[in-house]
């Protein structure tokens, strides 16, 4: 079996344009990138293993990459992550509004509050903001961004050379925002796009994070470990959206999954075994240390963390709670964190493995039983994972009437079934 895992051109535009064209040919709604603002370097206060093994070592600025992908496509939505903790609202508003115009109304902004002290250090801070404060800042941040995106009326631009009128000044306004975290005057410098403004993506999982997602999110991607747990999460999110005074039908939930597909089940199982064999314990601990702000090299692999150390494992509360629950130990070992978090392995998310009909059966079951509104296909390898899914699974889903055969429109909002936002 041949499985290409690492094309050598991942630093070049053509790599991402090839992925974009592959996804658009298969009628995917959206390609989006997560992001970090630092290399993983919490394990042993070192980045050596990160660089040696390429564990999130390269994270380039997303706006040029998304622009390049947008120039190679005409319908595929394109989303990027940008932090509310380390950037300014005007900057984010302008960057994503410009991107949205350049690619014809297909942009999405994945709103994150960032993760760890390594990111803080890259921006001149000694440590990361406390969890709830990050979301308090994020609430105001997104208010400012949406305010700027509403600064221009849809019909503000006139561009009438004969009458020497570029735009109607009565239809462009200052924001004049003054809050606890931000002051931003305006007026904004980018007119509205064909879809109004970029789609808001979010991944809130904690109680505070879900409240944030329910208030602001339009496309939510959150971890789902089983259909039963997924149905509970789905109902809770839709209820929270309704409680926030929004239409639950205008908020889509899409959990990440891995799909390992082959022409036969045995081929798919061979692929899965090979991919799983690539996982290394040191890589997992590197990634666990990154999202917990705790240096696991201070503890032997099979030594339980004492209470003080467990208290320090606090940035990713969901990961810690999951390890405690699944291990049955209030003081797990580093090995327990590797085994039960599955961090750094494909088993961190649900794995659908088999022939095309097997994958389609599982996707159909989740989709039709209100586990989710769609899926985030995480790549086990790229671009091969997308190519295999598009070649084998998409036609099967289309045959069942579960997947569109063409895009509904030209903008991301049209294709996701989201209303065009009115000027606030």
> Which structural category fits the helices and strands?
alpha/beta
Unreliable sequence segments = none
Strand content: 5-15%
Instruction: Choose one word for the global shape.
Output: globular
In CATH, the topology of the largest domain is named TIM Barrel
Task: Please state the CA-atom Rg, rounded to the nearest Å.
Answer: 22 Å
Oligomer: single chain
Question: What percentage of residues falls in helices of 4 or more residues?
Answer: 40-55%
The count of helical stretches stands at 16
- How do the SSEs run, as a string of H and E? HEHHEHEHHEEEEEHEHEEHHHHHEHEHH
Overview of this structure, please?
This protein is an alpha/beta fold. The protein has 2 domains: 13-257 and 369-378 and 403-416, Alpha-Beta Barrel (TIM Barrel), CATH 3.20.20; 280-341, no CATH class. It has 16 helices and 13 strands. A 6-stranded parallel beta sheet has the order 1-2-3-8-9-10. Strands 12-11-13 form a 3-stranded parallel beta sheet, sandwiched between helices. The protein has a two-stranded antiparallel ribbon with strand order 4-5. Helix 14 crosses helix 15 (384-399). The chain is globular and about 75 Å long. It starts with 12 loop residues before the first helix and ends in an 8-residue tail after the last helix. The mean pLDDT is 93.
């Amino acid at each position: 079996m041949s499985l290409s895992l690492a094309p050598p051109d991942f630093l070049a535009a053509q790599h991402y344009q090839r992925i974009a064209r592959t996804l658009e040919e298969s009628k995917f709604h959206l390609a989006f990138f997560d992001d970090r603002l630092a290399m993983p370097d919490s394990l042993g206060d070192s980045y050596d293993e990160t660089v040696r093994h390429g564990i999130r070592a390269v994270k380039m600025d997303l706006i040029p990459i998304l622009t390049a992908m947008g120039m190679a496509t005409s319908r595929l939505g394109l989303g990027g992550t940008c932090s509310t903790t380390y950037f300014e609202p005007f900057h984010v508003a302008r960057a994503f509004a410009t991107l949205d115009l350049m690619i014809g109304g297909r942009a999405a902004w994945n709103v994150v509050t960032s993760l760890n002290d390594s990111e803080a250090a890259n921006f001149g801070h000694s440590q990361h903001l406390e969890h709830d404060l990050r979301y308090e800042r994020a609430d105001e941040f997104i208010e400012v961004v949406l305010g700027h995106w509403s600064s221009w009326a849809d019909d503000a631009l006139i561009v009438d050379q004969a009458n020497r009128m570029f735009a109607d000044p009565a239809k462009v306004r200052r924001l004049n925002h003054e809050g606890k975290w931000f002051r931003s005057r305006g007026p904004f410098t980018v007119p509205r796009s064909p879809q109004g403004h970029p789609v808001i993506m979010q991944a809130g999982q904690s109680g505070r994070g879900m409240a944030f997602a329910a208030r602001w999110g339009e496309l939510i991607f959150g971890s789902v470990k089983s259909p039963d747990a997924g149905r509970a999460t789905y109902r809770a999110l839709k209820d929270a959206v309704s409680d926030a005074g929004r239409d639950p039908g205008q908020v889509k939930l899409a959990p990440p999954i891995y799909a390992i597909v082959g022409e036969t089940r045995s081929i798919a199982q061979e692929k899965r075994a090979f991919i799983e064999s690539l996982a290394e314990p040191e890589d997992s601990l590197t990634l666990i240390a990154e999202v917990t702000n705790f240096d696991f090299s201070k503890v032997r692999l099979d030594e339980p963390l004492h209470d003080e150390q467990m208290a320090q494992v606090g940035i990713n509360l969901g990961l810690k709670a999951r390890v405690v629950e699944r291990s049955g130990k209030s003081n797990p070992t580093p090995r327990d964190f590797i085994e039960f978090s599955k961090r750094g392995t494909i088993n961190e998310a649900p794995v659908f493995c088999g022939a095309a009909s097997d994958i389609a059966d599982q996707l159909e079951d989740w989709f039709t039983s209100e586990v989710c509104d769609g899926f985030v296909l995480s790549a086990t390898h790229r671009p091969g994972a997308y190519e295999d899914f598009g070649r084998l699974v998409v036609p099967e889903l289309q045959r069942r009437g579960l997947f569109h055969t063409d895009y509904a429109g030209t903008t991301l909002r049209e294709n996701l079934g989201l209303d065009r936002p009115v000027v606030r």
